[in-house]
Amino acid sequence: MGEQQAITRGQTTMTLTVLFCADPLDPRRVDEHFTREADTVRATGGTSVLFDHDLLQQGDATEAVRRVPRGLGPLWYRGWMVSSSEYHALAKALAARGTPLMTPPDGYQRAHELPGWYDTFLGLTPPSAWLPLHPREIPGEDALEQLVQELPQGAGIIKDYVKSRKHEWEEACYVPDLGNPKVLRSKVEAMVGLQDDFLAGGLVVRAYEPYDGAECRVWWIDGEPALIGPHPDTPRDDPEPELDHVRPAVRALGCRFVTTDLARRADGVWRVVEVGDGQVSDLPSTADVGDLYFHLPDPS
Predict the structure, then answer these.
(1) In 3-state terms, what secondary structure has residue 213?
(2) Strands 47-51, 128-132: parallel, antiparallel or unpaired by DSSP?
(3) Domain count along the chain
(4) pTM of the model
(5) 75: domain CATH number?
(6) Which of 84, 17, 90 is nearest to 55 (CA)?
(7) Percentage of the chain with pLDDT > 70?
(8) Over the Cα atoms of the chain, what is R_g?
(9) Whether residues 38 and 96 fall in one domain
(10) What's the rounded Cα separation, in Å, for the pair 289 and 37?
(11) Considering only 63-67, 175-179, 212-216, 276-280, which range has the smallest mean pLDDT?
(12) Domain range spanning residue 131?
């Protein structure tokens, strides 16, 4: 299959308009991380426009999009993650300039945060429970004990609504026994502390499932897989996931551009580890950028 699997390339040219993050040191250039994507858009007839991601995070969405030309019509966003509230502000500021985002704020939040997509993928993903939190807020042992009551006994993992601290696995992600509220609280305290101001939404506790091999990432556009490849953390892997059981849930979610991270459980069943909004999901370094962008719908 190669390092990524393209699903029948469509149009040979595109007239997409794509919003990228600007380089923090030079607002006239695209952020280096997205240069390959912006070059692909321009080389195939599309338009790349830039905004200031830092200003958006500082709360000034209007100034952040000042360099976006007015009246461009609908556009896609490809850039760094933003919170749901930041995305809402970005969408409002762009709409005021006549350049609405193709993914509305409610769709972004539904795909981006676990509470938005979990019920749709029930049975396909590990059992989970969540609790809204403010940044740096640590729930007590009683609240945590109540939170995990309906989860299977045994090990679990913790994360916020969007991402985990999997690179601090023992310290702030893996919980060997969800039935021990003291240990659970210590792990939560570590995770919340590491997330600091960037804690997204609150706390998620998930049942731990052992997986056989690395994760893969599937990019879905209008309910169909557009690109199947490795997870960005393991770009040289070559997974071949089963998707028939996942497709109905992706379609039911009702979001045009999403990703699913999949892994094969130890018993051979492919599981949905994470769902994400396709605008802020990272591409592995081995992916053919064109294979993704040629499938993005042209708003015209």
Answers:
(1) coil
(2) unpaired
(3) 3
(4) 0.92
(5) 3.40.1010
(6) 90
(7) 95
(8) 20
(9) yes
(10) 6
(11) 212-216
(12) 127-207
